[in-house]
Amino acid sequence: MANSSLTTPPNINEAKRAARHAATGHWMTALARLGYAAKGVVYLLVGVLAGELAIGKGGKVPDNTTALQEIYSQPLGHFLLIVLTIGLFSFALWSVIQAIFDTEGKGRKAGGLVARIGYLGVAVSYAALGFAAINLLTGSGSAGKGADATAQDWTARLLNLPFGVALVVLVGLVALGVACVLFYKAYKATFRQKLSLATLRPEVTRGVIFLGRLGYAALGIVATIIGAFLIVAALNYNPDEAKGLSGALVTLLQQPFGPVLLGIVAIGLMAYGLYSFIEVRYRRLAGRV
Predict the structure, then answer these.
(1) Which residues of 85-99 are buried (b: 16+ CB within 10 A; e: fewer)?
(2) Which of 137, 151, 174, 284 has most Cβ atoms within 10 angstroms of its Cβ?
(3) How far out from the chain centre does Cα 232 lie?
(4) Mind listing the pLDDT tens digit for each residue in 102-124?
């Protein structure tokens, strides 16, 4: 008599394949592309606002929530922000799928696992931005705290934990590590591997690569400033010294030749926004083009 304990269990691998197929199907990849478009809108607007600040035209200190408020203030702003909100949550969901199903092929070694955990961090940040957009849409009149206030709040919470100083220093080092990865991407143009550009003319392809390099370099500069100030905040035990995106941009403006430095980074952020629009059409998603 066959032992019931030896009954063949359900095909776990088949279940995993079915789950991956559902998570990376055409509807989900369509939402992911909407997410890349939403990311492009946010960075393009932040870059424009930073550029206005650099030339002394704008009074707003740019960050992601400022970009949401700028969209909301435009004609048809309510409708546009609804579409953007859907895109932000779509990108957050796609980032979770990237982490769980390893659509980028990072693997299970230490470096790959760190990258996949990073996708979860991206998911949290874009979901938070989506909720900030909902605050505007529901009539609160505010997109919530800015990047600096959020960074300072989290820094204060970490500092109050056991080994809090070490934790904040570690987060700062992680931010500097992210900056190094971004600079490497800009230098080597490794992001090109994720794009399907075979149908484009060579000069157009070179333009796409240039936008990507400029954009990733600008993000690397911002991440370097954020990481450095986190470490300073930890060593001085002063969370008010932590900075987010807006603080990083203002720091650039306060340096010698600050308007020039901020202007260069602003152009880079706009370039990254445009590059994100290119990703909408040409980025490979889970083996699809």
Answers:
(1) bbbbbbbbbbbbbbb
(2) 151
(3) 24
(4) 888 888 888 888 888 989 999 99
SS3 call for 285: strand
Pick the closest to residue 45 from 276, 279, 213, 216 (CA basis). 276
Paired tokens of 13: 């691998």
| Residue 56 · residue 259 · CB < 8 Å | yes
CA dist 11 and 2 (Å) reads: 20
* Residue 283 DSSP code: B
Query: Which of 143-152, 242-251, 266-275, 277-286 has the least mean pLDDT?
Result: 143-152
Q: Which of 239, 233, 228, 85 is nearest to 154 (CA)?
A: 239
DSSP 8-state assignment for residue 193: G
Tokens of 244: 């987010």
Between residues 15 and 272, the one the model is more confident about: 272
For residue 223 the two structure tokens come to: 């991440």
Report the pLDDT averaged over residues 221-239.
96
Task: Provide the β-strand partners of residue 288.
Answer: 285
Q: What is the pTM of this model?
A: 0.88
The pLDDT of residue 109: 86
Average pLDDT of span 224-236:
96
